[in-house]
Structures
1.
Amino acid sequence: MDKLVIRGGNRLHGVVTVDGAKNAILPALSATLLTDQTCVLRGVPKLQDVYTMVEVLANLGCSVRSDNCSLTIDAGAVKHYQAPYELVRQMRASFLVAGPLLARFGRASMALPGGCAIGPRPIDLHLKGFFAMGARVSLDNGRIELTANSLRGATVYLDFPSVGATENLMMAASLAKGITYIENAAEEPEVVDLANMINSMGGRVSGAGTKTIRIEGVESLKGTTHEVIPDRAEAATFMIAAAVTGGDVVLKNVIPDHLKAVSAKLREAGVSVEEDGSLIHVRGDKILKAVDVKTMPYPGFPTDLQAPMMSLLAVCEGTSLVTETVFENRFSHVDELKRMGASIKVEDRSALIKGVTQLTGAAVKAADLRAGAALVIAGLVASGVTQVTGVHHINRGYGDLASKLRALGADIQGEASP
Ligand code: EPZ
């Protein structure tokens, strides 16, 4: 199935359960390389990116067993440190094996992660940290070669609070000799979740979730069982879809605290968002008002929800200004939304959205997973039929989005192109 066909106009209603977080399970899978004992990961979402990361681990020599929503990984048999070139090019997150391989084996070799539709995606901050910890870094034939006799603690200042760099350096530091401080660290919940997993393995990480993380290296780490946090990006996608369709949806398996920026913006737009423990109840029964959105590192408004939110702003009353401060060009959804009648003007990293009363269905193409989610949301509220291609991008980060939306009353079907 590489096309989604959506007939707009249905209000979403009912209950949806959010899966485990893609951006937590990927670093957690990498962290299993830090020990020669067995790790069990729970709450594993069924996503293409998870299958890719499992393939990377298996390629390195790990044994991986899958049982419904859990994975059992044994990295005791890891024989080499060369991550498969094509997989690292294909999925940037596979670069997260660099830190653990370097920490455990003193070697890591992998392709330069490719850029993608949302920007060049450099790794200079990762390499700056590895170098500070005593690693030697070289580039041969498109492969990054990292070597270190033994990693030592260091103080690393991140010029940008990079999520991946914070996670990679935290993992490397967990087995280094001495104490590492990561300053201007990313504060995302997925960073905290990784720190909790490392500590459950016998690690000594403190300060995760703040701008300074302290990691005291230990001799070795043991196996663990770890359940990843719920996916705040998936949750927010459903909140926005419920709001824009004038729906009434209860989300289960969420951590409301991780969604404060999104909930605040939706309330500002006139959406009812009620929190109750691990539930969030969203009702979009009022006219929605334009709001300005500026993406920022956590706890600011998440860049991953900028595109889905723009589909809602496209049909709000008034004019909204969206500013994308995290990635260079994360507006690939704009031209596609304009095919559906949205009125959007982009200047550099800002987009001015003049709300229209109605979007109309069209054939549109997803260039990345969150842009794909935005186009599906637009299709839910457009008149007529919308066909979204590039579904493989969506499947990287959403476990069967179409069936979850159908269960909420959406008229959406997956189709194979002729
Ligand atoms: C993580 O990507 C997420 N992916 C992304 O989610 C998310 O959008 C991003 O963090 C920001 O929150 C995973 O966790 C697997 P960054 P990551 O390093 O770690 C620059 C999704 O849709 N930068 O925080 O790659 C970089 O160019 C995905 O689920 C450097 O300059 O993001 C970007 O402009 C998309 N040098 C900014 O920092 C570096 O060495 C943020 O990147 C590293 C990053």
2.
Amino acid sequence: MCDRPSMGAIVGLTGGIGSGKSTVARMFEALGATVIDADAIVHELQAPGAPMLEEIAEAFGAHLIDANGALDRAALGAIVFGDDEARKRLNGIVHPQVGAEFARRVRAAQEAGTALLVLDIPLLFEGRRAGTGTSAVMRFDATVLVAAREETQIARVIARDGATREEALDRIRAQMTLDEKRGLADYVIENDGSLDETRRQVEATFEAISAAQP
Ligand code: ADP
């Protein structure tokens, strides 16, 4: 006899910037899913005083930590942008710790017995392709893509982040194209319409994934 709690499917949730991925993650949560947010883990592990900051400062310079002990993300981004060696070094510091924390939270959620575990990973398909990060080693029962037209993404990023149109476009075009992602996803949630239309798709996807579980 097996007395372990039911595992629940592991879902990889992804979507380009401004597509509405965080909004969809909250809708999954409202249906009873447990959501683990990759960006939130990175931010926690890089909070002022966190050991990872010392490693980053040792590798790339103490000037990356400001007077309040916070990481200067823009300066770090400028160092690794277009420098493969530097990016690899940074990934070597960040990815193992993020991966370990991810694994710890997945285990905790499974032990608590969750119906559906949603891993919110912005660069899921990019990471898989590059063979780096959590998405490269994690096995998902299903992947869900949140899709929105580029004009929708631009408008949302401008409204949410106060970005210019050019900045929004740069950030969108630095990611894999939507068409490529569509070809890789098991489920696609179209998020150009109203929040109600999106919620209905999230409910249908939640049910389809749950029904597909053995
Ligand atoms: P992402 O996590 O993909 O970057 P968010 O979920 O933060 O995107 O959504 C970006 C912005 O667009 C947010 O301000 C959010 O409230 C808004 N938004 C998302 N989906 C919709 C929708 N269907 N209708 C209206 N606004 C939306």
3.
Amino acid sequence: MRAHPASAADPSQEPSGRYRRPATEAILLVGGKGTRLRPLTVHTPKPMIPAAGVPFLTHQLARARAAGVEHVVMATSYLAEVFEPHFGDGSALGLHLEYVTETEPLGTGGALRNVAHRLRSAPDEPVLVFNGDILTGLDIPALVATHRSSGADVSLHLTRVEDPRAFGLVPTDPDGRVTAFLEKPQTPEQIVTDQVNAGAYVFTRSVLDAIPAGRPVSVERETFPGLLAEGAHLQGMVDSTYWLDLGTPQAFVRGSADLVLGTAPSPAVPGRRGERLVLAGARVAEDAKLSGGTCVGAGAVIGPGARIEGSTILAGAVVEADAVVRDSLVGQGAHVGPRCVLQGAVIGDGAVVGADNEFLHGARVWCEARIPAAAVRFSPDE
Ligand code: GDD
Ligand code: MG
């Protein structure tokens, strides 16, 4: 007889490992329009934009695989046609991937219901769900273990943020049970916690099957509040691991740099972690300086004297001599002229920026735009 029976609330203490069995199925929500990331998302859906040299989704799929997931259903909508040609049946990642495309966007909950028939899990088994734009060190098996040990209907990964207004607020009681779900709070009174929905869930499969079919449903605005009103058990798991929603250009560039640096975990970074990652086929001038987790994509060219810090230069882009690029993203095939200064800027795919331009503080240049060279600035005494 055991002197100290394991606590159900602490699955790591559970000696038989009963709660540590992985969830083998996941749904990835990858159908959003990525509006805040435009112009990066004009030709490419958000999860397919390269971060640290591979489409962002690769990192999420690799982490799911490492956590024991075998079967993933992708819920696609916007630019749905680009996912399957890249990932195919998933065998390169050791996964079985399936794709389901909505004819009209069904929202996060509608998308889940729309793919539920592809799941193989029994009604009482756990199914993982991931938002397709989250970079995190979440301990996926721990979330599944929390779900199993608490007997919840849905378990949610929660994280603490300084400004929760852009997220779903999820207050919990002392046992971690969710007491409310407030998506994108509008008034100061609604900001009752700094715990937010981190975009990874475990659903008991039957709960997914019960979402209404054939119409748009928001899991955040309808499903979660509805479940709480019915007395369902929603369990939160708060942690302080790395977490970033890559929904804005600044966040995307940060996330990619953190993957290159090794601050953000992923088994899918194609190279050694460090100050820079230069993909095969890129050409970098000998005296160019790349630092802060900069990634240079295949076929890109970096000219002499260029300084690039914490930035993502996508495939086939050109950054000419003596340009300074910080915390910025240069899109596929874009061209940044000599001596340009980019700071927190986004240059869309195929854009051409002439010499001596400055783009600072969130400036965005649209895809294929042509920006002439800046007029030469004379110093006052000339
Ligand atoms: N298939 C499909 N269909 N997917 C969709 C749809 C749709 O109609 N709408 C959105 N998605 C996908 C997006 O591609 C993304 O992966 C995920 O659902 C979440 O959508 P976002 O647009 O990124 O939402 P958000 O960032 O404003 O808020 C969500 O994430 C936060 C955490 O980052 C919410 O879940 C918040 O509660 C949460 O805090
Ligand atoms: Mg998001």
4.
Amino acid sequence: MRKSALFATLWLALASGPACADGGYRLWLRYGATTVPANAVVVQGSSPMLAAAAAELRRGLPVGAGPVLLANAADPRVAALRLPVAGLGDEGYLVRSVTLDGRAVTLVTAKDDRGILYGSFALLRHLDSGGSAAMIDLSSTPTIKLRVLNHWDNLDGRVERGYAGQSIWDWWNLPDDRDPRYFDYARANASIGINGTVLNNVNAKAESLTPRYIAKAAALADMFRPYGIKVYLSARFSAPVELGGLTTANPKDPKVAAWWRAKADEIYREIPDFGGFLVKANSEGQPGPRDYGASHADGANMLAAAVRPHGGIVMWRAFVYADTDPNDRAKQAYDEFKPLDGQFADNVIVQVKNGAIDFQPREPFHPLFGAMPRTPLAIEFQITKEYLGFASHLAYLAPLFSETLDADTRGRGKQVTVAQVVGAHQLSAMAGVANIGSARDWSGTTFNQANWYAFGRLAWDPTLKPETIAREWAAQTFGADPRIVDPVVQMMMKSREAVVDYTGPLGLAHLMATGHHYGPGPWVSELKRPEWNPVYYHRADRGGIGFDRTRTGSNAVAQYSPAIAKLYADPRTTPEAELLWFHHLPWTYRMPSGATLWDAMVAHYDRGVATVGELRREWDALRPLVDDERWTKTAAMLATQEREAIWWRDASLAYWMSLNQLPLPAGARAPAHDLAWYKAQSFPDAPGNP
Ligand code: GCV
């Protein structure tokens, strides 16, 4: 057997079978116990980042592997090989099997140290997902510049919409306690190309900008730096009043601007490569420039001026809506931001959620994508599953992410995808609301780790296919054995659609219970702000269901390009999956299948529940191939999911039937309880509440 084939076989054997238990702590970086000798990895040059890359290879390369050479593309020996490195951009890498001085070597090269770091992880990913050790040829450059996690972590340790324990930042004991977990966090993020992290909640406390907290953030920044990860902070707009004793936070007041400049200088003295600020302003009670009659651009530009001398940026969120605005909530961000196109400083990026409401299991892409050509737009996804079953439902989110990234913003014939809009500017970013917490397995269960992984991989390359990502994640997480990888990928690929089916099919959205957003509450109608009530979104009554966003309704369709607006204006050309997002239709409306809308809805609810039953059976069959700890926890999670999928279906159907007075289609099971029973369920202690 050739050395390379022997090496691959040995690697597969070590990586397959029930891997030793660690409660999921090692994520997808589950290297074997034996490390290669130090001289199996040779580094040309020296820097903390190169040292981190080499250490990772020594930790992760399979026994017998090597030699691996890490060297800059400008190194004379590398240059002499005349490799195709000219096209590599910042952070891009080339990993090649080459012959150097008569010896076979795996070369990891790039134009910068970051590229070498990412190339090293790419090599490990390749080998760990069953790739051959012979004739390696990997090359990639990221298309999105800033690939950033947003932690909604509060300074008291709670995580808003976090379902995996407390915050991983032990704020109290920082900066002294440099928990090794921070180092593993950095490794995991670097392995998927994430290069920034916002440490604190967008519902920010001004205290995070005090010297005490800046020192804590600086300690984290020191640990993350060798892994290419910059630290950012969410900034509370009223901090000049709360911390600086000023009487105003008006962005047009020179004293306010001076306060922020001094604050930025102070931060950069402690964290020289500080990334900048993330701001949630005039949204859900947060302060902002609108409090002073100034625009979002005025507010963002004032902060941008403060960080500009240091090379920092401002990520300014477009997630704004107000109960004082009688317009459709889905239209409000566009109405507020579109007129500001071209008015933002060039170190501001406007951060837009994937859809116009709020991280629902399915939303059409946000109409701002494609509508602000002169402004860099970051896309924000939620990795934590506030509306998709918290940590206890299996919902693989790459299909959701890709659905938005691949959406055409122009309409037939002139395709410009959301991903292309996001990547169109020098400053480009993708943000993901983290699902990371103090839980031993970081994300609540093993399958939730896949969403963190998928976010990073898609931020690096938005054209990657969800199935490809699932396959590489499954192989690294469970071993590159097709007996487990194939069924796991199959489970993942149908999981998100199942959640859509049992929570809100055919374009329904925002049907969850109050506050914690856990479980069904489509009947909720008594909350103070109209747009906090599910009835606002589904508008169901005796006659029909759905939100009319066409010309006869809110006309939100007009915010899309003319070709897309035309498609959405007609229920016959609206994608079935988004039907009730755009149209209010009679329960008896005939679907293309010939079924009535009501019968089709019931079929979706039933399909969702049935799919979760399949997931359980498929996981049961994998018991011999997964270590007990991870298998048992996932089995328990799937049992919860099945019970709750039935709850969602039954509660929703009981409520719809109370309105439409229609019988269930033949063969459909009646809800287990009456509507009053479902309405009486209460979970004030559900996790993740702010
Ligand atoms: C951080 C939703 C969530 C809030 C979150 C908000 C946001 O409304 O429920 O918890 O606040 O989005 O994205 O700012």
